[in-house]
Amino acid sequence: MKIFRRGIKLPDYKALSLLTPHFKKAPLPAFVTLPLKQHQGLPAIPLVRSGEAVKTGAKIAAAQGDFSAHIHASVSGTVREVTPDYIRLESDGKDEWEAEIVEQPDWKNTERDKIRQCIFNAGLVGLGGKGFPTHLKLDQTTKGACDLLILNGCESEPFLTADFILMFNKAVEILHGARFLMCVSGAKKCLIAIEDNKLECIEIILSKIRLLGFKDIEVKQVPARYPQGSDSELKRTCIPSKNRDDVKVLIHNVATAYAVYEAVKYHKPLIERVVTITGHCIVEPQNLMFRIGTSAYDAIKTCKGFLRDPVRVIFGGPMTGVSLSHLNTPLTKPVNGIVALAQEFIDEGKEKPCIRCGLCVETCPEHLVPETLIKGIRLKDRAVVRAFQLQNCIECGNCAFVCPSNIPLLDILKEGKQTYFGAPYESMHSEKDLIYAVVP
Amino acid sequence: MPLSPKERLKKTFPKTTSPHWHSRFSSSYWAWQITLGLLPLILLNVIIDFQDTLRLLIFAVLSGLMCDYLFAFFHREEITIDDGSSFLLCLLFILVIPRYTPWWAVMLGVFFVIAAGKACFGGWGQYIFHPSLAGLIFLATCFAGEITPYLRAYEYGTQQAVIPFYAWFFQVDAPTLGNMSPIAVLIGGMVLAWHRRIDPRTPATFLAALLILALLIGIRIDRLFLSHPIALFAFFILPDSSTSPITSRGRIWAGIACALFFLFFKSWLTGIEALAYSVLIINGLTPLLDRYARFVRS
Ligand code: SF4
Ligand code: SF4
Question: Among A415, B154, B169, B258, which is 20 to 30 Å from A317 by CA?
Fold first, then answer.
């Protein structure tokens, strides 16, 4: 039923950063800080010593086994500091690239194992915010031969427009990337899911599909509702309900597809990505291609600083992002935006008793009853927590957003998941706090 | 001196947990909006019966808020008379009691509503039975001589074969204020339901079930609707947040079950009492309904 759809229509404020829909590179930062753990899994191991000279794209930290990802120098210059947590580089301003990062001959017909190797060598991780190493995600599905690849271009988080800009400007590259991903995973079909508030992107991608003649890629228009970009919601909207359990799907972000394209075509490692710098407090909100490791300070300074004092500065969107305590925090691979929230979006009111209004139930995309769940968690009632299926919560934050009594529902739910189910396993952004925690 | 854009960059921020923003919709705002939904009815009441409406309003609201204040004061709790819940409960209370209720009975009833019905259970959101209805039952039991005859005697249009159209808009001789104008309540309720301040599932299923059942049994629907404040109960009392189920399926079942109970009780309890008892029974069944109506994924 359409009227009673779950999820919420959030005010999106995407227009803020779309004033200039260009695809530009940001100026090189003077320093970059590269945390060794920018992904889920084990941290990388440094390969360089302090004082060494590196070129852009050189591997400076190697993946520790398979459950990890390489890290590359994002500027050319000198290594200034190597610690167990991060490597700091000073840029020489010349931006000399490694010699082997050039267009490969016959890149369109790269073989399957070669593509996988390129992805691993480039240190690719999921760019949608989760930061799960891409090669691992591919390996998981190649074993059980995947049927459908879904490229997630939803970007249901408000404020962020990084994927929009990418689809708007780099549609051909994304389609090639999707082709490579299909080749590795063995998927027969690819769906690009795009929310209906980005009709421009849908048009552009459709025309490029026709241009390139990729018959096995289709565009799926999905309703703009938060959390449309979560895996479970995407599956629900893209696959008809009768064979939802049989179809094996692989979900990747469009930004990842673009990075795959670059990794295969140029052997270019993941050293830069589109980041949205936005919010009502930024002077010139826009999307720029930032080098990984640029500090939030430099990134915001590129956009001319703060217009007025923000109350919170967030990596990622306001629903699931991570708030910064200071602006020296570097941009890591999964960060798709910096949002500077103004006072008027934040309700500092204190927690009041629950009035059982049912708003949390109505907005929960997983059909849970958060009100009963938090009661169960607070009373340490294991039976209630099990009966109401806490494990299905994807930590989207809808319930806490709408709660009129300001109850920190999401914090309580996360805590409950920790105590009853150990590590949070089915969640949208559970590991993200870990990834950003390495702040020098 | 105002800071320049670059100087502002030096600041630090408190670390918070996601979600970092909030809809900024608060519960007291919500209660006041529902109160606003009753405004058309209250206005009509004032026009039709200025004296009684004002008398009831002033006595009920003043003593209700005072009772709320005193209770919080003596229990050293936070004073919450401005959150609108007590006001709403007092308002609903005067809409369901007979309009000729003497002032001392009104005050006593309101004390019962606020102290025993709401505060004793732990305040807004905690009570199991709708306090206004509890107050009504309390009055009807304690002052059976003064209150009950009014509630029971009224059956609209027993003499006339054709019910005049204006009766839907105002009934001058209705025993309770809530009964005076079904259309006014309907308008307020529909607006609130459209904006999702009231979950539309409960009123919709309740009214639909009532219509179908009445057709099956062979009761005259217009008479049923005009003699009972059905719209008021469907939109404002049955879907009351604290006492009705929270799951969406539970809300649908609650509407249907309430219609069943109402027609069942109606055979020997006339008037508003049948409605009140059926809603109270649904209130009692709420935890059960919630438990069995939850969505379970295998
Ligand atoms: S949204 Fe908040 S107040 Fe409403 S039922 Fe859920 S927890 Fe209670
Ligand atoms: S955080 Fe969990 S419980 Fe809350 S709305 Fe999202 S899925 Fe539902």
Answer: A415
